[in-house]
Amino acid sequence: MFAGEYLCKLDEKGRFIIPSPIRELVQAQGNGVVFLKGEHSVLIYSSAEWAKLLDKTKDKLDDDQKRLFMHFVVSEIGTSDVDKAGRVLIPGRFRKLVPVEDDLEITLVGLYNHLEAWNPSSWRRYLSQTEDKNEQNLNKIYDLLSSN
Questions:
Q1: Which of 15, 18, 82, 116 is placed for a possible disulfide with 23 were both Cys, Cβ 3.0 to 4.6 Å?
Q2: Calculated CA dihedral for residues 59, 78, 26, 17, nearest 10 degrees
Q3: 16 close to 9: Cβ distance less than 8 angstroms
Q4: What is the residue-level pLDDT of the chain in tens, covering all 148 positions?
Q5: Where are the beta strands (DSSP E) in the chain?
Q6: What pTM value is reported for the model?
Q7: How far apart are CA 101 and CA 127, in angstroms?
Q8: Domains of the chain as residue ranges with CATH
């Protein structure tokens, strides 16, 4: 399971070193990753998790939905392999979606079976807006966590 928040530096080619706890999970599931446009970020799946997601769509979507999924989601993915130094290249069009600023940093956020890559300032803004908007739900979550 992917969890945590990590600030990662990109090199001049758009590669970042996957933090070691995440790298071990990705490499245990193969050596490749799949990039996908998210609502506010870029989604990153291990190759194995992406294959599971594809299988799930075969079972849960009707033919029209499958076609839409293939045309609007699968056709837009990007792929990369983890190199020997633990680096992953973010394909150029996905770097533009983050967007990567002059400081060449991204925030990686672990979300169960995938990661999200964010522009660090967009991530902080999103957290602030979400906290204000969802205070009651967050209190319930915090209560659940502290009850054990």
A1: 18
A2: -160
A3: yes
A4: 788 999 999 999 999 999 988 888 888 888 899 999 998 899 999 999 999 999 999 889 999 999 999 999 999 999 999 999 999 999 999 988 888 876 799 999 999 899 999 999 999 999 988 877 777 777 887 788 877 5
A5: 5-9, 15-17, 32-37, 42-46, 78-81, 87-89, 105-111, 114-118
A6: 0.86
A7: 19
A8: 5-120 (3.40.1550.20)
